[in-house]
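Question: Now follow the chain.
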Amino acid sequence: MAEAKRTGIARRFYGKASGRSRVTMNRLKILVTIVNRAKADFYMDHIQSFGVNMQMVVFGKGTAPREIATAMGLADSDRAVIFSIIGEDKLRSALDSIEEKFNTIVGGKGIAYTIPMASIIGKSIFNFLSDNRDAVRRNEA
């Protein structure tokens, strides 16, 4: 019984039933970007251009001893950690663009990495975080 139920769900969501259009799932990732605090707004705006609907920034301080930080040219230790929810389909272009910004902007160095999201509760929340505006509008109607 459970197997038949799962098969029906798979047909409905993955288009295996005849006459149904194929629906693809856009997996979500948490993009963590650590940058100089003065550049936080710039990077948040830039990341938002990749269809990111939810971001959070946390301010912190670097942990390297002052002598080491000065030797590495890191005089300012104030950092911003930006957490962004991004679709897997836009992740590669976002990371490439962020890397390009790290290399070209004065004082814009940083670190970016991703963490997979295992689950989300609620179809509306998933559609919002996936930047799926059509589905969000259908759910509101």
